[in-house]
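Q: Protein A?
A:
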Amino acid sequence: MLDADILFFKKPMEMINCMIASKGCFMSDYQNAYALSLENLIALLNIDIRRRVNSGLMYIDVEKAYTLDVIETFLKL
């Protein structure tokens, strides 16, 4: 995922290397900016929630990390 306002001043080798290695990565944030509190998300989804994730720049290897059914379930919530 890549927001339209992301600008690279040099080739983003850290992200490229993660994709080559099929390793997920994300950009950190200074705050938790989820629509719900961490406590509510954990109770609702029954999973540990990553703290301070900026969704403007991330890579998820769907084949390794999630099935499309899991992603669909999250999107429905």
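Q: Protein B?
A:
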Amino acid sequence: MSVTTPAAPPQRLLSLDVFRGLTICLMIIVNNGTGHGFAQLEHAEWNGCTLTDLVFPFFLFITGVSLTFSFSSRIGSTSTAENSRLSQLPHIFRRAAIIFAIGLLINAYPHYSLALWRIPGVLQRIALCYLAASILYLWTGSRTRFAIIAALLVGYWILLRYVPVPGFGIPTVNIPLLDHDRNLATWLDRKLFSVHLFDHGRDPEGLLSTLPAIATTLFGVAIGEWIRPLRANPARLLRRIIAFGLACLIAAALWSLSFPFNKKLWTSSYVLLTAGLAMLALAACYWLFDVMRLRSRWTIIPVVFGTNCIFAYALSEFVAIFSVSVKFTMDGSRIDLKDAFNSFTFDNIPHHQWASFAYSLFFLTGCWFVTWLLYRRKIFLKI
């Protein structure tokens, strides 16, 4: 990871920075409540989808959009020779490896116990999706990538719907479809990772469910490919993105009747739902900030996070883990730093949901201030 102080690239998409920054804001908010928050600021317990469940797929979608701009500036035109694309492989693998490693460090902090070290994770999934999407972007065309998206979504549905789960039987025949513990994705994670998982033998970022997550990233690649040649014709670009987004939402609604939305298993209907909503959200940001050229002081809030997103996320995770790892005795009871702080501040707010939200905003403000210090000095941590 290097520290650079580059000038802003010409014709940078402000909408992309704002959208990415808003996603990071929401990610920090939903990850740092007090456990008694509003329903939409919590993950759906199993099937279903809340506002919180949109955060991670939105970030993967943005990753796909961004990499089209990154590689376009690196390799030039589409007629670039094969060796120019090959020259990008060290960068791709290096970046994916660093992101994966940061995720592992976050998972193990602060004890770093090899016996229970969680292997899957948010940054690990981002790394794998970035790796796959980058290689597919450089070596396949748009039609091939759409075919791959279809294959990933349909193939994943077939695996979870029809393939017998060893020791349990066939979904919908011997066991319920998308059963909490008796589904193919969870079974495979247990076989591969044993105890190195998030939740007693289950993991929301498991290996098999990374396949449809790659499809989420490839949807972003498709939109990124449309943006670059159509920026001179924003009306046509917006119509195309909105139409595609609505089509994804319709397909998601229909598919969910037999294959429900499920973030923890990253079901195919969930991919279509979140990709469609991400397209509409990006279209709104693009119209406001790159077509209408809306500028206001508040945009500095998401832009600061959007230009240093990995740093902001890692900072929030390390601070959050630290706050519950430091324990001391107060009034005869063992209590962690987070609870001790809240007992003097936000716990005094009468309603638990508002108390949790107030703490989340306080935490977000602290992370933003640290990230802003880097932004103010034009320090951007590039991986």
